[in-house]
Amino acid sequence: MTLSTAELEQAPAEPPSLTTALSRGTAQAPSAHDAASFSRTQNTASGFVLSARSDAFRRRFYPEVSQKTWSDWHWQYANRITSLGVLGTMLGLSEEEAGAGTGLAALPLAVTPYYAAQFDPHNPAHPLRRTMVPTVEEWSLNPGESADPLGEDSHSPVPGLVHRYPDRVLFLATDSCSAYCRYCTRSRRVGKPCAGSASRRRWPAAIEYIENHPEVRDVLISGGDPLTMTDSALNHLLSQLRRIPHVEFIRIGTKAPIVMPQRITPALVRMLRRYHPLFMSIHCTHPDELTPEASQALNRLADGGIPLGSQTVLLKGINDNVPTMTALMQGLLKNRVRPYYLYHCDPVQGSAHFRTPIYKGVEIIRGMRGFTTGYAVPTYVVDAPGGGGKIPLMPDYVQGYDGEELVMRNYEGGLYRSYDPAVPLAAHNVHNAGPAGCADGDMPCL
Ligand code: SF4
């Protein structure tokens, strides 16, 4: 049975418990994924906002859980959905999804109830659902793919630390996440049993390495997701790093405000603001993720003075078109998140069904630049396989030199010339497209 949004609003306040409903086969999920279901909200006793969509899901599947408990991140984390069996009673799995259950050894399944509430239960192609629900396509190894496509392990001087760039390091603080993205670059290591405690044991050697390398001025704390750690664990790590005089800048990479926004408590923000300058990179993939809950989490962080940037992976059938990407980036700006990187999907094994051709990202940037505010346009990068680092890719706006004029194409495709005589000979030779190309306005791109 499919419920309309209006029917959901009238759903009985106390349907049978999840267990009872599941055993009777009567549990129903929220129906169509529509914008209106995001917009109606209420404040819970904990002070955290609750959208009508999330609350309908709670009432259907977790009727014994109060709004206050639902809005507690500890409950969300402890009650992550980790089996296809349970998820299947909420979504109705496709053949491809149900078939993935034969071996979830590489990357486990975990989705917070909050994030599962945002899925369209009737559409396996729904973008958010595709990023979290495994399919049989994960089990193929495709050309160019590997377990560690960025060569992180070979740039790791001590366990849990990657030192690839001159003045910054990646600190892998934990191997746990609140939800596991099926295209995760670190699927070889995240989500393993004892992920939290094992990763904690790596900290002392990693901190000592940073202490002994004065060139390291920037530490990116990532994982896994650092915001799956308790406030006290994170506070401990941040205080250790802040004691190192040459560490000028700390960043945290996280998807928690998107998949478990309840994690962004006032107490967390109060703790984080003691460690400025502290930046945060928010991993997000689709405008549907910008729910009232996510919006509140992001605004709490911004109110705490934490500069927010975004990281988005370009994903086939999920966000690989100009309108979706523009809506995402504009939505992030409205939530005070500055679009930062758009990543080409790394060739981690079993991810071909998510990967677009590289030119697709360039096309999307071309379709955004000039058509919306420059603040909304991220930098498209390919993380070079084997550890070459991020390589930015841009549309070709420079057409070449014609004599002492640089010929450029604007965002609408028009050709414009700028008198620019002081050109080093080498650059002139490289960029000169020749008068014939200029004459008919059809100069070759560089
Ligand atoms: S949140 Fe990040 S580390 Fe965790 S599964 Fe997703 S991409 Fe991987």
TrEMBL record:
UniProt modified residues of type N6-(pyridoxal phosphate)lysine: K390
EC nos: 5.4.3.2
Start-end of Polar residues biased regions: 17-29
Domain of life: Bacteria
Catalytic activity: L-lysine = (3S)-3,6-diaminohexanoate
Any one GO molecular function term: 4 iron, 4 sulfur cluster binding
Cleaved signal peptide residues: none
Key words, A-Z: 4Fe-4S, Iron, Iron-sulfur, Isomerase, Metal-binding, Pyridoxal phosphate, S-adenosyl-L-methionine
Residue ranges of every copy of the Radical SAM core domain listed in the record: 163-376
The UniProt record lists the keyword 4Fe-4S: yes
Annotated residues for binding of [4Fe-4S] cluster: C177, C181, C184
Cofactor field: [4Fe-4S] cluster; pyridoxal 5'-phosphate
InterPro entries (UniProt xref): Aldolase_TIM, LAM_C_dom, Lys_aminomutase/Glu_NH3_mut, Lysine_aminomutase, rSAM, rSAM_sf
KW Isomerase (keyword) present: yes
NCBIfam families: KamA family radical SAM protein
Family membership noted in the UniProt record: Belongs to the radical SAM superfamily. KamA family.
Name of the protein this chain belongs to: L-lysine 2,3-aminomutase
Organism: Oleidesulfovibrio alaskensis (strain ATCC BAA-1058 / DSM 17464 / G20)
